[in-house]
Structures are given as C-alpha cells and as structure tokens.
Amino acid sequence: MTDYFALLGESRRPWIDPEELKAKFLALTAQVHPDRVHNASEAEKQAASRRSAEMNAAYNCLREAKTRLLHLLELERGTRPEEVQEIPPATMDLFTEVSRLCREADLLFAEKAKATSPLLKVELFAQGMAIDEKLNALRTRLSARHEALTGQLRFLNLAWESAPPAGSAARIHVLPCSRLEQIYREFSFLTRWCRQLQERSLRLSC
Q1: Is 44 part of a structural domain of the chain?
Q2: What is the gyration radius of the CA atoms in the chain, in angstroms?
C-alpha cells in the first residue's frame, strides 16, 4: 500500500493543518508540472505524469478527515476497518433528529408533487421554508460535532508523535487505534448525514 503521508512528506498523524498540507502539495506538484518536463524523454514525461497522479490521490485522501483516518488505520493495522452500520452511541441523538427531519422533508416533497391548488402550493412553500430552517440548524449542530472531533484528533497527534517509528513491532501496541476508529466512524456518519440534509435543502430551494 502506498503511504500517502510519506508521499507528501508528512509524518503519520490523525490531524494535519489543511493550509500547510495544501502548500506542501502545491510545491511538490510544481516539480512535476508538464511545463518543467516538456523537454524530457517520453519515459520521463510518463513518470512525471504518474507521480503527479499519485500526489493528487494522496492530497485528496489526506485533506479530508474521514479518508485520512481510514488510510492511517490501514497503514498502522495493515487492514481496513470492518464496515459497521451500528450508529455510534455519542451520535444517536443526532441520528434520530436527522432521520425525523429527512422524513418530514420527504413527505413535503410528496405533497408538493401532488398539489394542484395555488393556495395549497403557497402553504406548502411556507412549510418548506420552515423545514429548511430546521435543516440548516441541524447542519450547524453537525458541523459543531465535526469541529469537536477535529479537536480530539489534534490531541491524538501526541500519541503518534511519541510512538515508536513505523515498522517497529511495539508501535501498534501504543497507538490509540481503537479510539481513532471510533472517531473515523463518527466522521463517516456525520459526512453522510450532512449530505442528506444538504440534498433536501437544495430540493427545497428549487
């Protein structure tokens, strides 16, 4: 497996400053830009193209918390976490609200599809505005939870910074991978729920 952290010159850790990562990525990709290798041989151009594609994949992986944590867990454990559909207890209240509000929006969409009366359409529009406000308020709460988890990742960086080097047999035993996996799962659900809420907000604005 390609170590995307190493590819971009980053040490393995749960949290990475997004602006620093972007600056490093841009500096590295500038070295293999087509303008720099246009006089090179075909083999060198192809190698530069592959290198550029790898760095793009690495950046896209590491810049998002969910994919970065999954990659980090795979590197440290040697296997991907199992796909578990069970909602993390810490986010069960959010799951309940997301489900209820999505059902409310979906029922409104069904009513709007059947409505023919102008007065009813006006009433449904007003209901849609009220639901959209609730959708946005819930998305704000999800974002706050996302930020709280990001704070935990910053704290977990300390464990990776003090751990034995990669390849050491003792490394996996001192890293809090179980806690990292819990956070990864929360990020996964939060990302999914935010997407569901945003999709409904967009439909309400049409």
Answers
A1: yes
A2: 23
With beta carbons less than 8 A apart as the criterion, state whether 105 and 200 touch.
yes
Under DSSP, the state recorded for 29 is: H
Do residue 117 and residue 198 come from a single domain?
A: yes
DSSP string, 102-164: HHHHHHHHHHHHH---HHHHHHHHHHHHHHHHHHHHHHHHHHHHHHHHHHHHHHHHHHHHHSP
Chain length of the chain: 206
Q: Can you tell me which residue has the tokens 């956070």?
A: 183
Rounded CA separation 26/15 (Å): 19
Residue 53 resides in a domain: yes
Residue 91 and residue 145 in contact, taking contact as beta carbons nearer than 8 Å = yes
Read off the pLDDT of residues 184-205 as tens digits, 9 standing for 90 and up. Answer: 999 999 999 999 999 999 999 8
pLDDT digits (tens, 9 = 90+) for 160-176: 999 999 989 999 999 99
Distance between CA atoms of 31 and 177, rounded to whole angstroms? 35
Structural domain span for residue 109: 89-205
- Look at the chain and report how many structural domains it folds into: 2
For residue 74, count CB atoms less than 10 angstroms from its CB and return exposed for 0-12, middle for 13-18, buried for 19 or more.
middle
Residues in Cβ contact with 144 at an 8 Å cutoff, skipping those fewer than 6 apart: none
pTM of the model: 0.86
User: 100 and 184: one domain?
Assistant: yes
Same domain for 114 and 39 = no
